[in-house]
């Protein structure tokens, strides 16, 4: 029996020594004068892996491009990506590790506001700038003056679609279908409802689902009975494709509306004809003649052999905004980078012209596009903040 | 009224999907008293084998009965092999060990399939090929009944009848019941216990594969973690009906499907997942062995 | 000494402490009393949310929040345990799992605690000394309890319920007692977790968290407190220890390795690392052998 104890003890010692090791590695690499270390944390595995991986690919592409063109003031960028399995506590641990062990100068992440909210206080505590690609909850950047984002916030995007439904579609009655597990979806639905009712419309049915559900017929049958003109579904493409199919199967003819979570090739692949004609707000349109957008799409296709989705574009932009701030900073220190991030103005990004406001949020116009087919989106209108 | 009928149809169609998966859980539990957590991941494997085999055969966009049957067949065979291997490598060495060990191993196998699936198949959801065309069979007023609803319902019912036949009226079934009653005695009677248990897993996994393909057709979005929630609910359905009882699994699943549908349709859609467990707890408190289950009174 | 001052290492050590409390307390139900609960995360969530809510809105002292959180979990444990502990084995497991999930879904729907967005801005408190203070208290109380009449009754229930009943032990009463004590410590662990992370989200308390704790108990050995402590450390540290591998391979193999380790350990050491022995038992054996 004593052998077992010894075995267990050695295992524990081996484990702790393993965790100790990277600290020396981390300091060794950060002392390398020709490299700037940037950390990334995201959901690379787990139920939200698809979002984390897309974002990661966008960030990777941006870093590769910068390093291929000589890096930042002669220094190359090194990205350290850590997985958080989609768990808030792991996100906090990952950022803790990036900052205290790997000694990064800036952190990129997270997609979900819940995980950004768990990690942001740590970045703020150590005064390391954090740029979130797509955490849309207003609270995220309120954590402190080191937290930034490059995406829309919920109140803006919710009101964009409410305005669009009321003014462009002339909808009087809408139904809302929310993903209760996603703070993004809950936030968008809340602001949509407020604005739409302000504009004189009526929300006739409010239904909800949980991400990873596959059957939505119960909610849709109830919505059908309420006879709405449009259905607002502020979820992610992973569920919206199935929702649209089932809505069609039940003979629902109301227009489907959504937010930037819809932006992915998978939306049409899963939804097929059922999703054609749906409208969603987005940062850009693939139809855009803008050189920046077209270059990004072709570079992404070359690198990963697929069309980028919205989250990949956001990841790319978050990295590029950070790089731009680093270039303008005299020294790549966290303070200098933060100061430059705060003064970002009219930065031409893939997802539009980004200006960071005093609340460290990005302000940029939203476009409303209509789904036309596989990776085909028709431009409908632009709505300014 | 129209809405009510539609809800009823939806509920039955959802219930038959739970039933398809619940059958596999209940069978393995009936024989081995093991909650085979990996069952829902074998179901996921079934869907992915369907996807890759249809790509390989080049019939992704050629809907028809022949495509459907060939994909279903390949996937059932593939999953039987997976199920056999899982039993042989992970569960058999633990035959004599406490139940909890087998359970933890099952969880380990389940996690292994899920996460290696995320690496091999990719975490992004994929669309399932169109191997059978869906159509409205009935569109009376506002009520829609589709071909898939009927197909899934009929498949579930016929699989249930086949399973009941196998278990109640064949030699294999007799052996299975003997093993379930007492493994050691069965072995003394000359029943090859290991072979019978392997067969149980092979049949159970083939059922999971059928579930994976049918769900893939109806809800054409498949991903490595697709089994977790549906598996949990199917398992709850099996317990609800009386675990180990084939008809009970189908009955429990139908009750779950319809109850979920009506609660979501007429009220609190946010509490959908809590509801499944709420029903379960209530039933277990009043009928601890499930609706059709027989309670074994413990004797000294 | 760098290792002591590194916040990352410190946070890992604190999480180890939280998991030690969870594993040791669950061991009381699963290991010593022989019942099978897989809803521990639900009780942890109740303690965590209540304590965080009190700390944020009423600025009550930390120690009070923790204890109130623990008491709330204990009350929930009583409410859950009284009706469901009549059930046995897998049925009990499923009912506890169900309660765990229901608690999570309910939290997801309460806007006052943030719902899906989660609860943020929880006052930072606790840390190393609080966590290990509680961990030591948990270990001490449970090991003392096991030496008392109560402990013998718990073991009797595990070994043979009918015989225990025949000896005049009210089995239901003792099962519920074990369950309530275990829930109390789960609530404490939750409170410590909440105030250390400063952020709560229902997704942290899902089915997988409960399973993690069960794995700790089984891996360490059912009925061995030493085993639970060591297994809790291993399960907490293993995924972190494998991080450097992820940095090298760029693919996250952590969960694959974790699950394989789990299977292999169960196959090679079916009784867990320690069986039902404690460190002191091993020491006595060692002394006996060498004297």
Gyration radius of chain A (Cα, Å) is 22 Å
Biggest beta-sheet profile of chain B: 2 strands, antiparallel
Question: What is the CATH architecture term of chain B?
Answer: Orthogonal Bundle
Strand adjacency order, main sheet of chain A: 7-6-8-9-10-14-15
The count of β-strands of chain A is 15
Q: Provide the CATH superfamily of the largest domain in chain A.
A: Response regulator
**Name of the CATH class of the largest domain in chain A:** Alpha Beta
CATH class category label of chain B: Mainly Alpha
Helical content band of chain B: over 70%
Helical content of chain A (DSSP H or I, runs of 4+): 40-55%
Q: What is the averaged pLDDT score of chain A?
A: 86
Labels describing this entry:
heterotrimer; A: alpha/beta; Rossmann fold; 2 domains; five-stranded parallel sheet; 13 helices; 20% strand; globular; B: 300 residues; mainly alpha; ABC transporter involved in vitamin B12 uptake, BtuC; two-stranded antiparallel sheet; 4 strands
